[in-house]
Amino acid sequence: MSDPVNGEPLVVVLLEHAMHRVRAELYALSDASFPGLRTRHYRLLSLLPPGGERLTRLTAASGLTKQALAQALAPLQAGGYVEVVPDPSDRRARLVRLTDRGREATAAVRHRLAAVEREWAAQVGEERYAVARAVLTDLAPGPVTVGE
Amino acid sequence: MSDPVNGEPLVVVLLEHAMHRVRAELYALSDASFPGLRTRHYRLLSLLPPGGERLTRLTAASGLTKQALAQALAPLQAGGYVEVVPDPSDRRARLVRLTDRGREATAAVRHRLAAVEREWAAQVGEERYAVARAVLTDLAPGPVTVGE
DNA sequence: GGAGAATGGTCAAGCCGCTTGTCTACCCGG
DNA sequence: CCGGGTAGACAAGCGGCTTGACCATTCTCC
Lengths: 148, 148
What we know:
Chain A is mainly alpha-helical. Chain A contains 6 helices and 3 strands. Chains A and B meet through helix 1, helix 2, helix 5 and helix 6 of A and helix 1, helix 2, helix 5 and helix 6 of B.
């Protein structure tokens, strides 16, 4: 995964490794408690505001097409993580809303990822890790206000 | 992409954003100079040691199956980025070797990614970025010695 | 208030990247 | 020289996404 020729590894490789670690953790979480859920499902769940959200607005937040999103949503609905109800204010639209089980899943994700971060912090030092996280946060775009 | 409910964004989201930025840069590079090459192709190229390498050993380094790898290698071979020659020491095996054009591509990647990193450093501060990168490096596994 | 455009969502087909399974060619240890 | 292991190719299939077409409803504006 690193570069045998040149000295320092490519950023992309470093990022990929961290992603890989995180994904492994999420898969373990799925195996243990939420069978069938993939990384994108957890991300989707974490995007849902309390009052529910329309599919179209989720596409903007998630960067997926509405078709892809609908497809990703199907297992979530089937598993009882979200419920899809008609939007009272627009008969074309449907609201996607977290269920209790969905909230359970998002809480579990936070918990699990927090554990990974604690582990990382222990490995590289609390302060250094804090800096790294802050840097990544700074590099990320401003919060996407999906919940208005 | 961020979380509207809870405070701090998930690590996975932060990492994904950085990855996304990097990938965008690589795509731009492909459009400009190396049409058809995707992120995995650049990574593959950067894995190749000077003397060439066998497909099977690359699978270990890349984490892909040999079939996936062979598939990813095809466009590289077609584009003249690598050449595949029989291994003199084992008639079953074939050596994948960088061509000049391949070396050109890897150099371009390094250049381009270095530019992104300079940009990031300017945005968050040289020292903070240096810490972040060092942390990511520490978290990555020891160098995979693909070139023996 | 009615026609036309815009929006929310679904259905269907297809592509791409990867997987598993199977096969041949070759190496190596007895 | 024979059996097991390894290098790699071939084929089929699948998951996740895309584009394209379509229907239902709502908005806009004359």
